[in-house]
Design brief:
By secondary structure, the protein is mainly beta. The protein contains no helices and eleven strands.
């Protein structure tokens, strides 16, 4: 059992930055890969970024490569998503999710077991 809570969403102008945080409570956080996903109105949920349990590997959607950075601090049971050079198309509800893995991470949302409640990110032009 793992509980996840996102924070840090808000309203920002295009070109600005925002940092999201995912705080976890549970005994096995460091054994879980964590992903960030987003869903905009009228669109399907999509993969944004993910990181392995140890933090030694990570991956990004093509749409955010070079702009977003995922990181984790297992001592504090947190995962961050630094979002720079934000665009209006980044507007969405952002969720973090976790799943127990032996190594690596997944990009498919259907493979994640635990989900946070989401935080709204709005980018204005």
């Amino acid at each position: 059992q793992l509980q996840l809570v996102e924070s840090g969403g808000g309203l920002v102008q295009a070109g600005g930055s925002l940092r999201l945080s995912c705080a976890a409570s549970g005994l096995t956080f460091s054994l879980n890969a964590v992903g960030w996903f987003r869903q905009a109105p009228g669109k399907e949920r999509e993969f944004v970024a993910a990181i392995s349990g140890s933090g030694d590997s990570s991956g990004y959607a093509d749409s955010v490569k070079g702009r977003f950075t995922i990181s984790r601090d297992n001592a504090k049971n947190t995962v961050g998503l630094q979002m720079n050079s934000l665009k209006p198309e980044d507007t969405a509800v952002y969720h973090c999710a976790a799943v127990l893995v032996v190594s690596g991470y997944y990009k498919a949302p259907t493979l994640y077991e635990y989900w946070g409640q989401g935080t709204q990110v709005t980018v204005s032009s």
